[in-house]
Design brief:
37 residues, mainly alpha, rod-shaped
Length: 37
Amino acid sequence: SQKTMLRQAKTFLITTVAELAELYRSKQVWFHSTRLG
């Protein structure tokens, strides 16, 4: 049904955003640590 599709899309979006946030955070940490040496 449409409800199931919506729920799946929602879960997918949340997971993607969470993964992107993780990636962004680790990138920032890496950037700062390399700049500081």
